[in-house]
Amino acid sequence: MTFEENITKAARIIKDGGVVAFPTETVYGLGAGVFNTEAIEKIFRIKERPFFDPLIVHISDIEQLHLLVKNVDENLLKLAEKFWPGPLTIVTEKKESVSDLVTANLPTVAVRMPNHRAALELIKKAGTPIAAPSANKFGKLSPTNARHVLKQLNNVDFIIDDGNTSVGIESTVISLNSEGFKILRPGAITMQELAAVVPYSDSLFSTHNKGLQSPGLLKSHYSPRVPLYILGKHQVNTSGKKTGLLTFGTEKEKNTDFVTENLSASGNLNEAAANLYNSLHKLEESGVDLILAEPLPETGIGIAIMDRLRKAAAENGEVAGIHE
Ligand code: TXA
Ligand code: MG
């Protein structure tokens, strides 16, 4: 099938109330028409996602904001102009017409315009904004290619396979109102880049999303099937265990006892983000009993990488050291 044929078929399925996995620049999404409640329910079922965790709505055109958002104000337009299409999700007050199922009963909706030809063409051809979480089982590793999607999910009506994603890590999620923004989930677009466009506002949560700030941002998330520990001051006993090692930068000495995945031998954080989930998928598939992850510098996208590693490690304590 050609690219166009794939898009046409996928758009038909969305129009008919089906569910399609598709690539974005960050990770693959599992999408359905935002105004088709039955199709949205299928997403939750396939992912085994709890209904308290709201979905991101993907658009292909700024005009579609008016279908979803109550006030398309100046801050929103400034951010959209600067960062869309791109890995930025904006949470703001929703329109009544957006189902409570999509937003988990919150008064807000999360919107983003992905920077990927397949995603944009799909939304255009389907003629509707597409609600889509990442195309993985709830709490597990995110997919950065079609194989990762197939590994975890059955019952998806169709997958658009367009290779590996380029950014490799989920979008930056921010909450926005007329006062400014606050980061709910770090991603490729950083605090500094955002603050250059709209003011940072710490007071934001007095007005919306009382309780859980962002319900999907549970402490434990993005986890491989085996325990993951971040290398640090505490000790993990690796004796008698097949150990996976996630490294970054030049390796001082190769330890052949370990199954090693290097996120970026040249120490490039963008490359590390692009490789993160694929490396973790490979380590969990290699049959290791546990994974030790070297910490990365927390600058730029490194902040988002460490956020994901800490969440992957949450059940196992925060830090570890090799003790044989
Ligand atoms: O890069 C991405 O954002 C990918 C691609 C497919 O676009 N999507 C993604 O979706 O990562 P998901 O569902 O895995 O993560 C969405 C996050 C969740 O943590 C969710 O709680 C949060 O966005 N979110 C969605 N709607 C929200 C809302 N109204 N208020 C606060 N947080 C919200
Ligand atoms: Mg996800």
Descriptive terms for the model:
nine-stranded mixed sheet; binds magnesium ion; binds threonylcarbamoyladenylate; DHBP synthase; Rossmann fold; five-stranded parallel sheet; globular; 2 domains; 324 residues; alpha/beta; 10 helices
Description:
By secondary structure, this protein is α/β, with parallel strands linked by helices. The protein contains 10 helices and 14 strands. It has helices spanning 3-15, 37-47, 65-68, 74-83, 100-103, 117-126, 146-152, 191-195, 269-285, 302-313; strands at residues 20-22, 29-33, 56-58, 88-93, 108-112, 130-131, 158-159, 172-177, 180-185, 228-237, 243-247, 258-262, 290-293, 319-323. The protein has a 9-stranded mixed sheet with strand order 7-1-2-6-3-5-4-8-9, with helices on both faces. Helix 1 (3-15) packs across helix 6. The longest helix is centred in the last third of the chain and has 17 residues, at 269-285. It is globular. The termini are far apart. Mean pLDDT is 92; it is low at 206-212. The protein binds threonylcarbamoyladenylate and magnesium ion. Threonylcarbamoyladenylate is lined by residues 24, 26-27, 29, 53-56, 87, 89, 91, 103, 106, 108-110, 112, 114, 132-134, 170-171, 173, 184-185, 209, 214-217.
